Amino acid sequence: MSDGHEVDRRGFLQCMAWTGTGLLWSVVGGVPASRAFGPGRAEAQSGASFSFVQISDTHIGFKGAANPDALGTFEAAIARIKVLDPKPAFLIHTGDITHAQKPGAFDTVSEALKGVGVERTFYVPGENDVFADGGTEYLNRFAVGGPGRGWQTFDYRGVHFVGLVNVLNFKAGKLGSLGPEQLEWLERDLAPLPSSTPVVVFAHVPLWAVYPEWGWVTEDGAQALGYLKRFGSVTVLNGHIHQIMQKVEGNVTFHTARSTAFPQPAPGVGPGPGPIKVPVEELRGVLGVREVRYAPGQSRLAVVETSLA
Amino acid sequence: MKALLAAAALWLAWPAVAPAQTPAPPPAQMPAQVPAQMEGAQVEIRAHAFSAPTVTVKAGTTVTWINHDDDTHTVTSTVNAFRSPGLDTDETFSYTFTTPGTYEYYCSLHPLMTGKVIVTPERS
């Protein structure tokens, strides 16, 4: 768990300048937090703490030796989410919803996640969700009406969320990438935001170079991160590597998530990536979901990992 | 698809011919027409890699890929000459190369996995 309590004074000052009014200190959820007040701006309406859940790499349809019952562990993950208190505002699924687009797997996941009882789930695809048909099924299901090929943005209580897609440009011998169209969109999307806006970015493959030799990197991720540098609080949530890793670079905190299906080796350990079989009694201990808590005034979002054990 | 895999599985029952070896000429008493399927090469997929990154075969040869990983892989031509579905553990994909040339391929799930089939003319 990382819980950044330090106050980002510069961010506050920028916020103050922007609203032209000032800040009212309050206590939200037991931690001191600043609350912008002022005339009628959307930003001023924000300021309440909330939490959301990241679930990743559910790989529904996987029946390999590493976990013959990926559906069972997915259901265990849902049970964990259902008992969270306070209830998460929404869920984010960071891809590999299905294992290799197995028939019916998208339905299984989206129906089950509706049962969690949150307002909605935001999805980004993993390569397993798009490899067979170039993303047609995924995009028709989850990205109709969006700005591009599955990338998306939304705001929630003053936090700006960006979902990026880095699995649609796979080419032989190359790493996953965002592509120029999406990068241009991202730059335009972020341009009007004051630097004090907390930003959460989510995508399947890590945006930072976790281990390029195994493809655990986004080729043009650095360009996206360049657009994010000026923000006082940036949280990047990824999946793909089925293990928790964290890195802090300036104001940017990177987190990779566990899978609910099977673990993968630590970077560079063993002959290659892929499912690893652990003793049955240890499996649920290496699977999990993540709760992310936002409280205004904290420069870092609190990240709480829950295993399925 | 199932039929294709079944056919590939059936083919696997024949002794595999390693790609590097030149198949021994058939004994004189054998019928002249040898089914094309009997000449073949096999590429193993293991630990996120193609066992023989480059395979050289004569035109008319069937190449079969078999996935030994727990993960799913594909055999996807870079120019759409052939494209396997997702291959789960122990599943195979076969393709018969009829036209000489160099065929590059990769795994569309793990694009750092790449390989090449070089097809030489049938009579050379």
Q: Explain this structure to me?
A:
- The complex is a heterodimer of chains A (309) and B (124).
- With 309 residues, chain A is an alpha/beta fold.
- Chain A has one domain (52-307): Purple Acid Phosphatase, chain A, domain 2 (4-Layer Sandwich), CATH 3.60.21.10.
- Chain A contains nine helices and 13 strands.
- Chain A has helices at 9-19, 42-45, 70-82, 105-114, 127-130, 136-142, 180-190, 221-228, 280-283; strands spanning 22-28, 31-37, 50-55, 91-93, 121-123, 152-156, 159-163, 199-203, 234-238, 245-249, 252-256, 288-294, 302-307.
- In chain A, the strands form three sheets. In chain A, strands 6-7-8-9-11-10 form a six-stranded mixed beta sheet, with no helix packed on it.
- In chain A, helix 7 (180-190) runs parallel beside helix 8.
- Chain A is globular and about 50 Å long.
- Chain B is mainly β.
- Chain B has a single domain (2-14, 39-120), classed as Immunoglobulin-like (Sandwich), CATH 2.60.40.420.
- Helices cover 9% and strands 31% of the residues of chain B.
- Chain B is built from one helix and seven strands.
- In chain B, the strands form two sheets. Chain B has a four-stranded mixed beta sheet with strand order 2-7-6-4, with no helix packed on it. Chain B has a three-stranded mixed beta sheet with strand order 1-3-5, covered by helices on one side.
- In chain B, a hairpin with a 7-residue loop joins strand 6 and strand 7 (114-120).
- Chain B is globular and about 40 Å long.
- Chain B starts with a helix and ends with a strand.
- The model of chain B is unreliable at 1-37 (pLDDT under 50).
- Chains A and B meet through loops of A and strand 6 of B.
